[in-house]
Each structure stands twice: as structure tokens, then as C-alpha cells.
Design goal:
Layout (H helix, E strand, L loop, with lengths): L1 H38 L22 E6 L12 E4 L8 E6 L5 E6 L2 E6 L5 E11 L8 E2 L4 E5 L5 E11 L8 E2 L4 E5 L1
Antiparallel strand pairs: 1-3, 2-9, 3-9, 4-8, 4-11, 5-6, 5-10, 6-7, 6-9
């Protein structure tokens, strides 16, 4: 019988804890409801304004070849032949066209393999580029390394002269071809 009584007291204690918890939850909800009611007088939204501006650039830069690099008739006995992109009128000429007064980066592959028309013999060509914002070759500056930063002029143009050097001492007579890759991009 003692055990039953103890169990009853434990149940009563549990009931007292449960009533306390219910009362706590009731008071907590009442507080939330009061808080919610109190917030009805507070504005639920606010606004702000800011000035936004953007400079939209032309997305593409067009690179156009205006003149190919020219070599006069050459003989293997001439050894190394070269075309200076700053001073030789045989230099190739390209023009980049894009958004005016925008900074650009000019990159290129310095060494290119030229392949004989038969596909058997090759020559190594070392390209040199120079660039200037106006079509004035003698004022152009050599592109240092494989890339350099420049700026398009007020018309959105930039001129690139293409030169280089090749050793033809062991060349077989005939035509040699290769592709120069020049990349111009906004920075």
C-alpha cells in the first residue's frame, strides 16, 4: 500500500509540474500576443532610395587585319631575316575596335611554327608586336613580353603592327604558313 501512495504523490507532483508548464506557456503566449499587439502601431515597411549609374561597354572588341606581314624574296643564304614592327613598312597591321577610351590588354604567342607547303619542313618564327592608339607606326611601342596594357583612343581604335624574325639558313624553298594568335580584351 505504501508503494501505491508514493506513486500517487509522484503523480500529483507530475500534475503540479504539468500545471506549472501550462501556466508558463499561457503567460508566454499572452506576452507574445501583447507584443504582437504592441507592434501594430509600428510601421511594417520602410523605404530608401539610392542613385545608380552604369557605364555600359561595347561587349566585343573587333580585331581586323589591315595588312599582312610581307617578306621580299629571300634566300637561305640570308640567314636570319627580320621585320621591325616599329620601323619597317613591311610590318603587318591590325586594328582593334571597341569602346572609346577603354583600357585593354594585348597578348600574343611569341613563338609560332611555320609549316612548309609540303607539310614536312618547319621554321620557328619569333613574332614582335608594337602598338599605338593612332595609326602612327613610328610612334608605336613594342609589346613587352607576351602581353601589355594599352588604351583604345577616343574613336575606340588601337593599332597593332606585326613583325618578327626567322632563321631561314636551313629552309627548303617554297611557301611556309603559320597562324599568329593575338588576343585583345578589356581590363
Amino acid at each position: 500500500m505504501l508503494n501505491y501512495y508514493t506513486a500517487k504523490i509522484t503523480s500529483f507532483a507530475t500534475l503540479r509540474h504539468a500545471l506549472g508548464a501550462i501556466l508558463f506557456i499561457f503567460l508566454l503566449l499572452a506576452g507574445f500576443s501583447y507584443t504582437t499587439h504592441a507592434q501594430d502601431n509600428i510601421p511594417r515597411s520602410s523605404s530608401a532610395s539610392a542613385e545608380v549609374s552604369a557605364n555600359i561597354l561595347e561587349i566585343n572588341i573587333t580585331l581586323v587585319t589591315l595588312r599582312d606581314i610581307q617578306f621580299d624574296r629571300v634566300q637561305p643564304s640570308q640567314g636570319i631575316i627580320s621585320v621591325n614592327p616599329v620601323s619597317n613598312s613591311n610590318a603587318g597591321l591590325m586594328m582593334a575596335d571597341g569602346s572609346p577610351n577603354t583600357p585593354i590588354s594585348v597578348r600574343f604567342q611569341r613563338q609560332v611554327t611555320l609549316v612548309h607547303q609540303t607539310g614536312v619542313n618547319t621554321l620557328q618564327f619569333e613574332y614582335q608586336l608594337s602598338g599605338y592608339s593612332e595609326r602612327n607606326q613610328s610612334a608605336s611601342e613594342l609589346v613587352a613580353g607576351n602581353s601589355q596594357n594599352f588604351r583604345l583612343n577616343e574613336d575606340g581604335e588601337f593599332y597593332i603592327w606585326v613583325g618578327g624574325r626567322v632563321d631561314i639558313t636551313n629552309a627548303v624553298s617554297g611557301n611556309y604558313e603559320g597562324d599568329l594568335t593575338v588576343e585583345v580584351e578589356y581590363i
